[in-house]
Amino acid sequence: MGREHWKKIWVGSAGNMVEWFDWFVYASFATYFAGAFFPEGNDTAKLMNTAGIFAVGFFMRPVGGWLLGRVGDRKGRKTALTLTVTLMSASAVLIAVAPTYAVAGYGGAAVLLVARLLQGLSVGGEYAASATYLTEASAPDHRGFASSFQYVSMTAGQILGLGLQIVLQRTMSAEALHSWGWRIPFIVGALGAAVVFYLRRSMLETEVYEETADDGVAQGEKGTLKALWAHRREAFLVIALTMGGTVAYYTYTTYLTKYLSNSAGLPKQTATLVSFCALIVFACLQPLAGRLSDRVGRRPLLITFAVGSTLLTVPILTMLRHAGSFWPALGLSLLALVVVTGYTSINACVKAELFPTGIRALGVALPYAIANALFGGTAEYVALWFKDAGIESGFFWYVAGCAAVSLIVYLTMRETRDIDLGRVGRAVPTQRADGPEKASAPAA
User: Fold this and answer.
1) Helix residue ranges per DSSP H, 60-148
2) What is the mean pLDDT of the chain?
3) The domain 3-204+221-422 belongs to what CATH superfamily?
4) Which among 297, 291, 359 is positioned nearest to 147, based on CA atoms?
5) Helix (H, G, I), strand (E, B) or coil at 205
6) 323 phi and psi, to 5 degrees?
7) Which pLDDT value is given to residue 45?
């Protein structure tokens, strides 16, 4: 990969990192500000209210996916990426200054809700824009490796959020964190978004987007629902292959800290440290798995994830509930995240490889956002619902069942590794480091 490829990956990843820092600090700091926006009562009920607003952000992601996916296909990936980080910055500022229940009653929760709606719009477009950008910006035989940096940057954003939480936990009292300290990460996120806005204004557009002339999508239909409907099979495939992966990912990242403290009984500081250490290893695994997919294909990794998640979810979550201390909890969390890596490392490029250039951003954005609204964004709320109902183990089977559905899709879909992004569905020879030229097969 050349210098220009690395530059594009760096700029795209840096923005994605800040986007997901803002998105995830809401979840990681929810245990501290849940009581600030709702009246006194059952702690689990307050967390459910906060998780409900978290889920609302996911339901705005299809709208953001449609709007910003359209922008990405019509105006370019650079324009869409700049717009997403602007929306995210505004939402972070709103949460940072939102009044508490004691000051404005449910008015503070209303501000929180508006901020999450803006975040949903932003992230709904960010995923597809960055997935498309990173995939198109890379060399043909390094697409899996390059696109894996999307989850490296996503995870880095969460690691920074958890790292900041650890620092605040050790430098501030619990009373101060619950009172006003939880606002600090949102201020940091707003400042980071301003820096990324500057970086993205000078980023380079991808050559695939600029040079593709005949991709089967008419100029006036680029980024439209009509064009997406012509590729509805691929759109439904994105929803199905995302289902199991997004539930597993949010279970072992976003929800893990709450699960360890609220169900396993670990102190908040220990639960946060477990998540922090596990995510560092998880981030390092992404490029390795992405590069492996460039050699062996995408399907073997997806199938490995789905089989592992289907068979191991129930025992892992059951043992985590009885982990009792840092090291057992960390070991089990790492095992779960190693399995999830089979999905996270390559799902971005797999989805981008399904669609022609003129509909790629929208084709990835809208179906993926729908799947996340239905399964990823609700994972935490569903988990807490099962817990509140006294049948927490039911959630374990729910996660395993979603993975089983995706397994069927992975087993029946075609390999996408060798397609020509400039003209999806047409074979193109590619020179690989591990062997002679191969003729690619049409996309699924």
Assistant:
1) 61-74, 77-97, 101-104, 107-137, 143-147
2) 86
3) MFS general substrate transporter like domains (1.20.1250.20)
4) 291
5) coil
6) -60, -50
7) 62
